[in-house]
Amino acid sequence: MGKLNVFNFITLNGYFQGPSGDITWHRHGVEESKYAAKRLKSKSILLFGRVTYEMMESYWPTPIALKNSPEVAEGMNASEKIVFSRTLKKAEWNNTRLVKGNIVEEMKKMKRMPGKDMTVLGSGSIVSQFAEHGLIDEFQFMVDPVALGEGTPIFKGITQKLDLKLIDVKKFKSGVVLLSYKPMKK
Questions:
Q1: Per-residue CA distances from 26 to 47, 126, 127 (Å)
Q2: Which of 70, 80, 158, 174 is such that its CA lies 20 to 30 A from the CA of 133?
Q3: What residues in the chain have per-residue pLDDT under 70?
Q4: What does the alpha-carbon distance between residue 80 and residue 88 come to, in Å, rounded to a whole number?
Protein backbone atom coordinates (compact mmCIF):
# COMPACT_ATOMS: atom_id res chain seq x y z
CA MET A 1 0.00 0.00 0.00
CA GLY A 2 1.41 3.38 -1.01
CA LYS A 3 1.42 6.28 1.42
CA LEU A 4 -0.71 9.36 0.79
CA ASN A 5 1.20 12.59 1.38
CA VAL A 6 0.31 16.25 1.09
CA PHE A 7 2.80 18.88 -0.06
CA ASN A 8 1.60 22.47 0.03
CA PHE A 9 2.88 25.94 0.62
CA ILE A 10 0.94 28.10 3.04
CA THR A 11 1.07 31.52 4.65
CA LEU A 12 1.76 32.08 8.35
CA ASN A 13 -1.98 32.42 8.88
CA GLY A 14 -2.75 29.11 7.14
CA TYR A 15 -3.87 30.14 3.65
CA PHE A 16 -2.78 28.01 0.71
CA GLN A 17 -4.02 30.63 -1.74
CA GLY A 18 -4.90 34.28 -1.65
CA PRO A 19 -7.92 35.98 -3.18
CA SER A 20 -8.86 34.60 -6.63
CA GLY A 21 -6.42 31.71 -6.23
CA ASP A 22 -3.35 33.98 -6.07
CA ILE A 23 -0.09 32.23 -5.09
CA THR A 24 2.39 34.97 -6.06
CA TRP A 25 3.17 35.46 -2.35
CA HIS A 26 5.12 32.17 -2.28
CA ARG A 27 8.92 32.58 -2.15
CA HIS A 28 10.10 29.72 -4.31
CA GLY A 29 13.83 30.30 -4.75
CA VAL A 30 16.72 28.14 -5.93
CA GLU A 31 16.92 26.18 -2.69
CA GLU A 32 13.19 25.40 -2.70
CA SER A 33 13.38 24.39 -6.39
CA LYS A 34 16.20 21.95 -5.61
CA TYR A 35 14.10 20.46 -2.82
CA ALA A 36 11.08 20.12 -5.14
CA ALA A 37 13.20 18.50 -7.87
CA LYS A 38 14.60 16.02 -5.35
CA ARG A 39 11.08 15.15 -4.15
CA LEU A 40 9.93 14.58 -7.73
CA LYS A 41 12.67 11.98 -8.18
CA SER A 42 10.83 9.80 -5.64
CA LYS A 43 8.41 8.95 -8.46
CA SER A 44 5.38 9.59 -6.28
CA ILE A 45 2.07 9.77 -8.17
CA LEU A 46 0.94 13.41 -8.18
CA LEU A 47 -2.68 14.10 -7.26
CA PHE A 48 -4.65 17.23 -8.10
CA GLY A 49 -8.12 18.69 -8.00
CA ARG A 50 -9.34 20.31 -11.21
CA VAL A 51 -8.35 23.89 -10.38
CA THR A 52 -4.79 23.01 -9.33
CA TYR A 53 -4.46 20.61 -12.26
CA GLU A 54 -5.46 23.30 -14.77
CA MET A 55 -3.01 25.77 -13.22
CA MET A 56 -0.15 23.24 -13.23
CA GLU A 57 -0.93 22.01 -16.75
CA SER A 58 -0.94 25.57 -18.07
CA TYR A 59 2.61 26.16 -16.77
CA TRP A 60 4.82 23.07 -16.40
CA PRO A 61 4.76 21.81 -20.00
CA THR A 62 5.73 25.26 -21.35
CA PRO A 63 9.14 26.47 -22.57
CA ILE A 64 9.09 29.14 -19.82
CA ALA A 65 8.85 26.45 -17.09
CA LEU A 66 11.63 24.43 -18.74
CA LYS A 67 13.82 27.56 -18.80
CA ASN A 68 13.00 28.80 -15.27
CA SER A 69 13.00 25.45 -13.42
CA PRO A 70 14.26 22.72 -15.76
CA GLU A 71 14.60 19.95 -13.16
CA VAL A 72 11.19 20.61 -11.61
CA ALA A 73 9.52 20.93 -15.04
CA GLU A 74 11.11 17.68 -16.16
CA GLY A 75 9.89 15.91 -13.03
CA MET A 76 6.38 17.36 -13.21
CA ASN A 77 5.98 16.46 -16.87
CA ALA A 78 7.35 12.92 -16.48
CA SER A 79 5.42 12.09 -13.29
CA GLU A 80 2.33 9.95 -13.27
CA LYS A 81 -0.61 12.22 -12.42
CA ILE A 82 -4.22 11.78 -11.32
CA VAL A 83 -6.76 14.58 -11.43
CA PHE A 84 -9.99 14.27 -9.43
CA SER A 85 -12.85 16.10 -11.11
CA ARG A 86 -16.50 15.59 -11.90
CA THR A 87 -16.53 18.47 -14.39
CA LEU A 88 -13.28 18.12 -16.37
CA LYS A 89 -13.99 16.46 -19.73
CA LYS A 90 -10.47 15.13 -20.37
CA ALA A 91 -6.95 15.40 -18.99
CA GLU A 92 -4.43 16.10 -21.75
CA TRP A 93 -1.21 16.62 -19.80
CA ASN A 94 0.99 13.59 -20.45
CA ASN A 95 0.82 10.69 -17.97
CA THR A 96 -2.46 11.96 -16.49
CA ARG A 97 -5.51 9.91 -15.56
CA LEU A 98 -8.89 11.47 -14.80
CA VAL A 99 -10.93 10.12 -11.86
CA LYS A 100 -14.55 11.26 -11.80
CA GLY A 101 -16.04 9.07 -9.04
CA ASN A 102 -16.35 9.59 -5.29
CA ILE A 103 -12.81 10.72 -4.45
CA VAL A 104 -12.83 9.40 -0.88
CA GLU A 105 -13.90 5.92 -2.00
CA GLU A 106 -11.45 6.04 -4.93
CA MET A 107 -8.60 6.97 -2.57
CA LYS A 108 -9.52 4.18 -0.17
CA LYS A 109 -9.26 1.72 -3.10
CA MET A 110 -5.95 3.22 -4.28
CA LYS A 111 -4.44 2.98 -0.79
CA ARG A 112 -5.35 -0.73 -0.59
CA MET A 113 -3.52 -1.48 -3.85
CA PRO A 114 0.23 -2.13 -3.87
CA GLY A 115 2.22 0.58 -5.57
CA LYS A 116 3.83 3.96 -5.40
CA ASP A 117 3.33 6.67 -2.84
CA MET A 118 0.93 9.47 -3.81
CA THR A 119 1.31 13.19 -3.18
CA VAL A 120 -1.46 15.80 -3.26
CA LEU A 121 -0.20 19.17 -4.54
CA GLY A 122 -2.31 22.26 -3.84
CA SER A 123 -5.92 21.14 -4.13
CA GLY A 124 -7.24 22.40 -0.80
CA SER A 125 -10.69 20.86 -1.04
CA ILE A 126 -9.15 17.45 -1.71
CA VAL A 127 -6.73 17.86 1.20
CA SER A 128 -9.68 18.69 3.47
CA GLN A 129 -11.75 15.73 2.28
CA PHE A 130 -8.89 13.25 2.64
CA ALA A 131 -7.90 14.69 6.05
CA GLU A 132 -11.51 14.50 7.22
CA HIS A 133 -11.54 10.77 6.44
CA GLY A 134 -8.13 10.00 7.97
CA LEU A 135 -6.57 9.05 4.62
CA ILE A 136 -3.42 11.22 4.76
CA ASP A 137 -0.21 9.64 6.07
CA GLU A 138 2.00 12.75 6.08
CA PHE A 139 1.60 16.50 5.64
CA GLN A 140 4.43 18.72 4.42
CA PHE A 141 3.84 22.46 4.56
CA MET A 142 6.27 25.06 3.21
CA VAL A 143 5.36 28.01 5.42
CA ASP A 144 6.16 31.37 3.87
CA PRO A 145 6.97 34.30 6.16
CA VAL A 146 3.92 36.24 5.00
CA ALA A 147 0.36 36.75 6.25
CA LEU A 148 -2.53 37.61 3.96
CA GLY A 149 -5.65 39.61 4.81
CA GLU A 150 -7.81 37.02 3.10
CA GLY A 151 -7.52 33.74 1.28
CA THR A 152 -8.46 30.09 1.43
CA PRO A 153 -7.44 28.15 4.55
CA ILE A 154 -5.64 24.86 3.93
CA PHE A 155 -8.18 22.89 5.97
CA LYS A 156 -11.31 24.74 4.90
CA GLY A 157 -14.40 22.68 5.65
CA ILE A 158 -13.04 20.09 8.06
CA THR A 159 -15.53 19.35 10.80
CA GLN A 160 -13.37 17.57 13.34
CA LYS A 161 -10.15 18.19 15.19
CA LEU A 162 -7.00 17.10 13.35
CA ASP A 163 -4.12 16.34 15.73
CA LEU A 164 -0.69 16.27 14.10
CA LYS A 165 2.76 15.31 15.36
CA LEU A 166 5.76 17.30 14.10
CA ILE A 167 8.32 14.90 12.61
CA ASP A 168 10.75 17.23 10.80
CA VAL A 169 11.66 20.89 10.23
CA LYS A 170 13.76 22.30 7.39
CA LYS A 171 14.72 25.97 7.14
CA PHE A 172 15.45 27.65 3.79
CA LYS A 173 17.57 30.79 3.30
CA SER A 174 14.52 32.64 1.96
CA GLY A 175 12.86 32.40 5.39
CA VAL A 176 10.53 29.62 4.25
CA VAL A 177 10.24 26.74 6.72
CA LEU A 178 9.20 23.22 5.75
CA LEU A 179 7.17 21.53 8.49
CA SER A 180 6.43 17.80 8.22
CA TYR A 181 3.68 16.21 10.28
CA LYS A 182 2.08 12.81 10.76
CA PRO A 183 -1.50 12.50 11.96
CA MET A 184 -1.79 11.26 15.53
CA LYS A 185 -3.80 8.07 15.75
CA LYS A 186 -6.98 8.25 17.79
A1: 20, 21, 19
A2: 80
A3: 1, 186
A4: 18
